[in-house]
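Table S2 (continued). Query chain:
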Amino acid sequence: MWVQVPPSERIRAHGARRCSIPLRPQHNRAMKKINTNPFVSQVRDRYFEEIGIGHLSRTSKSRWMKNRKRPNVEARAALFNAIAPFVGRVECASMFGKDHATVLHAIKNHEMYLGYSGHYGECYEKGTRIVAEVANEMNMHPIGRYRHYINSESELEVLQRTLNNIQSTIDNVRERIKKNQSSVRQYRRVLDKQEQ
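Corresponding output:
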């Protein structure tokens, strides 16, 4: 739709005296869901206490939630990953006033953060502990594909079993190498005797 714009609001194009511009719809910012889940609120409040910002004012916490410095981003991502098995992405994002895409990004980068950031690992450990405590208190259970959710202790057991499997594979390979080396030595001796 085209409308005639008053002279005070006209956009002057090169060489144009009068112009009509299309009426553009006003794009409202996407409304972010307000957190109403008591589980999420309690986890967030305890997490704030644990990481040392629980004493800050509401305004300061709001600034922290919007801050894009690496340690703050990692601290938020750690809690997103810790609480993800128990709530949906939108509820998870509402915890810090973020969009669900932020949560998806944090979940996608979880392995990278764990591998390269000690701060993230500490925050993730605190987050999983707090989430497990609050989940037990409120009798919450993982949803969807996370029904097999594992806590830190069982995760360590799984990693230990994996390490044991890798160690047995290494031992088997070493034995095969020794066996092959001894047969190669015997073959060389046979060849040497035949040449003489």
